[in-house]
């Protein structure tokens, strides 16, 4: 079990207030509390359908959740990159089918283990109805494809992956 504290200095939260709905409150504790609530909301909704940590509880700016198994993708090298890339894409698709888009997907919030992948860090998720949903999904897919291409030479067609995720 881990405790995740949502907090940051004033400088980093200035950017958050520009990009997220903060409910009209701009003090860091309210913004951090909103981020914790959103992460809790996403984890509870997705757990059981998407490979995410199990959320136990949240209070103010803290989320209590299970530990993601494995190692952060940015800190390891995988033996079968195509298999892991396919697992990540499948989780992105399941998330999309559920009506959510991570909107900040990168090698820093994907954990890999021999059993598969788990996606963490959900406070910035958006719904598929969001005005920038297509852009954010496109960016998430591009981020993951770029990592696997750069690090392993594993290539997937960006357009086809987005179509797969959207079930088009």
Automatic annotation (TrEMBL):
UniProt-listed SMART domains: RIO
GO process annotations (BP): maturation of SSU-rRNA
UniProt keyword terms in alphabetical order: ATP-binding, Kinase, Magnesium, Metal-binding, Nucleotide-binding, Serine/threonine-protein kinase, Transferase
Superkingdom per UniProt: Archaea
Presence of the UniProt keyword ATP-binding in the record: yes
GO CC list: cytosol; preribosome, small subunit precursor
Pfam families, per the entry: RIO1
E.C. number(s) listed in UniProt: 2.7.11.1
Catalytic reaction(s) noted: L-threonyl-[protein] + ATP = O-phospho-L-threonyl-[protein] + ADP + H(+); L-seryl-[protein] + ATP = O-phospho-L-seryl-[protein] + ADP + H(+)
Top EC group: transferase
Molecular function terms, GO-annotated: ATP binding; metal ion binding; protein serine/threonine kinase activity
RIO kinase domain residues: 1-167
Family: Belongs to the protein kinase superfamily. RIO-type Ser/Thr kinase family.
PANTHER family assigned: SER/THR-PROTEIN KINASE RIO2, SERINE_THREONINE-PROTEIN KINASE RIO2
Protein's name in the database: non-specific serine/threonine protein kinase
Organism: Candidatus Methanogaster sp. ANME-2c ERB4
Organism lineage: Archaea, Methanobacteriati, Methanobacteriota, Stenosarchaea group, Methanomicrobia
């Amino acid at each position: 079990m881990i405790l995740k504290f949502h907090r940051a200095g004033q400088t980093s939260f200035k950017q958050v207030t520009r990009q997220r709905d903060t409910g009209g409150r701009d003090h860091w504790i309210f913004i951090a509390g909103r981020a914790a609530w959103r992460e809790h909301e996403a984890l509870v909704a997705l757990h059981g359908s998407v490979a995410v940590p199990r959320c136990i509880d949240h209070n103010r700016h803290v989320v209590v959740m299970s530990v993601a198994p494995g190692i952060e993708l940015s800190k390891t090298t995988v033996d079968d990159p195509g298999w892991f890339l396919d697992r990540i894409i499948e989780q992105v698709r399941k998330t999309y089918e559920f009506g959510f888009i991570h909107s900040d997907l990168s090698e820093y919030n994907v954990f890999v283990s021999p059993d598969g992948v788990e996606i963490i860090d959900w406070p910035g998720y958006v719904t598929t109805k969001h005005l920038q949903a297509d852009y954010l999904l496109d960016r998430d897919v591009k981020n993951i494809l770029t990592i696997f291409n750069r690090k392993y030479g594993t290539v997937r067609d960006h357009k086809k992956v987005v179509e797969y995720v959207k079930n088009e």
